[in-house]
UniProtKB/TrEMBL annotation:
<keyword id="KW-0813">Transport</keyword>
<keyword id="KW-0472">Membrane</keyword>
<dbReference type="Pfam" id="PF02653">
    <property type="entry name" value="BPD_transp_2"/>
</dbReference>
<feature type="transmembrane region" description="Helical">
    <location>
        <begin position="85"/>
        <end position="106"/>
    </location>
</feature>
<feature type="transmembrane region" description="Helical">
    <location>
        <begin position="20"/>
        <end position="42"/>
    </location>
</feature>
<dbReference type="GO" id="GO:0022857">
    <property type="term" value="F:transmembrane transporter activity"/>
</dbReference>
<dbReference type="GO" id="GO:0005886">
    <property type="term" value="C:plasma membrane"/>
</dbReference>
<protein>
    <submittedName>
        <fullName>Urea ABC transporter permease UrtB</fullName>
    </submittedName>
</protein>
<comment type="similarity">
    <text>Belongs to the binding-protein-dependent transport system permease family. LivHM subfamily.</text>
</comment>
<keyword id="KW-1003">Cell membrane</keyword>
<dbReference type="InterPro" id="IPR001851">
    <property type="entry name" value="ABC_transp_permease"/>
</dbReference>
<feature type="transmembrane region" description="Helical">
    <location>
        <begin position="54"/>
        <end position="79"/>
    </location>
</feature>
<keyword id="KW-0029">Amino-acid transport</keyword>
<keyword id="KW-1133">Transmembrane helix</keyword>
<dbReference type="GO" id="GO:0006865">
    <property type="term" value="P:amino acid transport"/>
</dbReference>
<dbReference type="InterPro" id="IPR052157">
    <property type="entry name" value="BCAA_transport_permease"/>
</dbReference>
<keyword id="KW-0812">Transmembrane</keyword>
Length: 120
């Protein structure tokens, strides 16, 4: 991913990796589409109710970290349920936003930080 030419020199078939990655991503998208059709009406705006929550999960978990995304999803879900139980649904959502903003002020890179070589 970071150095395609070096991977090819080491014998990695980058075209095959691209095809497999696309196939796995398409499969996940198909499964997610099937799961969303079970939750509500099918239409062009079927996933718009979930896009903000999904973005929050990725940012809180750490961009590019699967374990962080899972942990962020569990954390946001648990806190959202607790806040909705204590207050109303809309106030609970506002409290979640405030909690995420406070967390990102403390740890801007998310729960799990991807270490890489960089110039900064």
């Amino acid at each position: 991913m970071q150095n395609r030419q070096m991977a090819e020199c080491l014998g990695v078939s980058t075209r095959k990796v691209d095809m497999i990655t696309f196939a796995i991503g398409s499969g996940f998208a198909g499964v997610a589409g099937c799961a969303l059709t079970l939750l509500g009406a099918i239409g062009p705006t079927i996933g718009t109710n979930y896009i903000i929550d999904a973005f929050m999960v990725v940012v809180v978990g750490g961009v590019g970290a699967l374990f962080g995304a899972v942990a962020g999803a569990f954390g946001i879900g648990i806190f959202n349920t607790v806040f909705e139980y204590v207050t109303s649904a809309s106030i609970g959502k506002v409290l979640i936003f405030l909690l995420i903003i406070a967390f990102l002020q403390w740890r801007p890179s998310g729960l799990v930080v991807s270490r890489s070589r960089s110039l900064d």
